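Suppose a colleague, Dr. K., hands you the sequence of a protein chain of 84 amino acids and asks what its three-dimensional shape might be. Before reaching for any lab equipment, you can write down a predicted structure in token form. Begin with the sequence itself:
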Amino acid sequence: MQQQEIYEQLTPLFRDLFDDETLVLRPDLAAADVPEWDSFNHINLIVAVEQKFGIKFQTAELESMLNVAHLVSLIEKKLVAAGR
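The predicted structure, expressed as tokens, is then:
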């Protein structure tokens, strides 16, 4: 799966979770840029992403996640490793 496809699948997930239909995912978008992106919603986001893509993140990966670009890169690597 290409990064563009991942962004396309993540966009509605982010918009729904953060209740913002105008939210545009950019590589540099981070939690500090979205008022509703607190620690509780971060956990909800990770769970939703894991379910959507059928992957699991390690704690160290989550701790080092800086922005949407990093999230997309992690998703892509996990999908490639799984042969998808």
